[in-house]
């Protein structure tokens, strides 16, 4: 079977598995314990993993907080900032095409008398920077949360401009970068206006169940403050209590190390594979398909396509023995895509859309299976 659902999750690389195994079997110590080797070895392994993650996104090592994944990171940041800075305001700005972890956190806050502005997007899922500027000038928010790269259609938002505007007005800016890490080249050092960033290991060939929240320090080097989502023993500098999942964190670190080392190659490979796949689809289905994504300013390797007059669930099920694909986000698979709806698609167009998402490990020759459909 050809696996083309890498935006939902990726296969753990052999090197990642091998790095994790010792911390599941022999090196099982708690990194928060002291003095004996099982504990100090685990602590050192976590430090090394933290360094690899920091190197991948180009931030300081002490700005990396390990979580259970981007969903927790999004909730931690949005709810934590909203609570801690409530005396400074109650306005939050986001978009209509965010991951459910962001949208549901914002809806939760609306029930507690926060005001949330949901920005419209264009036909490819991007915000209009002038609309954004007008919103934050008319009613300055305490937090902006805007996705970097969309998980359904791959469109990249104008993050540089958003970050600069937030920095100018001293507004906290959070971006869910889950889909762009390891697929888009960036350095957080070039984006001082980004206050917070979220990501998950399992989107870049690491294990499920671990991710990170990047909590940037201010210009004076002072760590940002927020209300923790998880209270307890004070791990992760009191930002996220709980015994660290060392094996998963080590796996995340190894995946980040490999992604960093192979970033240019992986991006080129994804672009090449996407071009091949799009060409095969055009050749095979011609006027019977419409692409929802454009070909610029996007995450390489994500192809969202409408098969005219074909129900996407029926199509995905019929392909399941040969090709793994999806009808949209794995986190909201039971509902019609809110992303495509916000982009202006009709319900018929939404229900005929399939997402194919590629990995650098995909063999280009395997894509020839589309010729047999």
From TrEMBL:
Cofactor: pyridoxal 5'-phosphate
InterPro entries to which the protein is assigned, alphabetical: Aminotrans_V_dom, Cysteine_dSase, PyrdxlP-dep_Trfase, PyrdxlP-dep_Trfase_major, PyrdxlP-dep_Trfase_small
DNA-binding as UniProt keyword: no
Keywords: Aminotransferase, Iron, Iron-sulfur, Metal-binding, Pyridoxal phosphate, Transferase
Cell inner membrane is among the record's keywords: no
Reactions performed catalytically: (sulfur carrier)-H + L-cysteine = (sulfur carrier)-SH + L-alanine
One Pfam entry name: Aminotran_5
Residue span, Aminotransferase class V domain: 3-368
UniProt-recorded Gene Ontology molecular function terms: cysteine desulfurase activity; iron-sulfur cluster binding; metal ion binding; transaminase activity
Domain of life: Bacteria
Classification via PANTHER family: CYSTEINE DESULFURASE (PTHR11601:SF34), CYSTEINE DESULFURYLASE FAMILY MEMBER (PTHR11601)
Family affiliation: Belongs to the class-V pyridoxal-phosphate-dependent aminotransferase family. NifS/IscS subfamily.
Name this protein carries in UniProt: Aminotransferase class V-fold PLP-dependent enzyme
């Amino acid at each position: 079977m050809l696996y083309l659902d890498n935006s939902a999750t990726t296969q753990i690389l052999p090197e990642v598995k091998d790095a994790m195994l010792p911390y599941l079997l022999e090196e099982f110590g708690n990194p928060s314990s002291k003095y004996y080797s099982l504990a100090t070895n685990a602590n050192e392994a976590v430090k090394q993993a933290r360094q690899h993650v920091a190197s991948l996104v180009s931030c300081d090592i002490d700005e990396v907080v390990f979580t259970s994944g981007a969903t927790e990171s999004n909730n931690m940041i949005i709810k934590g900032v909203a609570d801690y800075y409530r005396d400074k305001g109650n306005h939050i700005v986001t978009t209509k095409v965010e991951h459910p972890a962001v949208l549901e956190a914002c809806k939760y806050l609306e029930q507690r008398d926060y005001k949330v502005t949901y920005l419209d997007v264009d036909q490819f899922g991007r915000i209009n920077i002038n609309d954004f500027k007008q919103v934050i000038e008319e009613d300055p928010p305490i937090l902006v949360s805007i996705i970097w790269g969309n998980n359904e259609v791959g469109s990249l938002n104008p993050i540089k401009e958003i970050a600069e505007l937030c920095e100018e007005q001293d507004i906290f800016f959070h971006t869910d970068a889950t889909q762009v890490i390891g697929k888009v080249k960036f350095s957080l050092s070039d984006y001082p206006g980004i206050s917070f960033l979220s990501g998950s290991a399992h989107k870049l060939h690491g294990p499920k169940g671990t991710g990170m929240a990047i909590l940037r320090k201010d210009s004076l080097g002072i760590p940002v403050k927020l209300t923790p989502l998880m209270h307890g023993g004070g791990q992760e500098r009191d930002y996220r209590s709980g015994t660290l999942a060392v094996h998963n964190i080590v796996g995340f670190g190894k995946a980040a190390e490999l992604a960093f080392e192979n970033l240019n190659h992986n991006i080129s490979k994804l672009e090449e594979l996407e071009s091949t796949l799009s060409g095969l689809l055009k050749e095979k289905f011609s006027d019977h398909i419409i692409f929802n994504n454009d070909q610029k300013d996007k995450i390489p390797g994500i192809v969202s396509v409408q098969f005219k007059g074909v129900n996407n669930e029926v199509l995905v099920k019929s392909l399941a023995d040969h090709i793994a694909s999806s009808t949209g986000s794995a986190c909201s698979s039971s509902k019609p895509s809110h992303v495509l709806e916000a982009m202006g698609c009709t319900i018929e167009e939404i229900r005929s859309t399939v997402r194919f998402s590629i990995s650098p490990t995909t063999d280009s020759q395997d894509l020839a299976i589309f010729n047999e459909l």
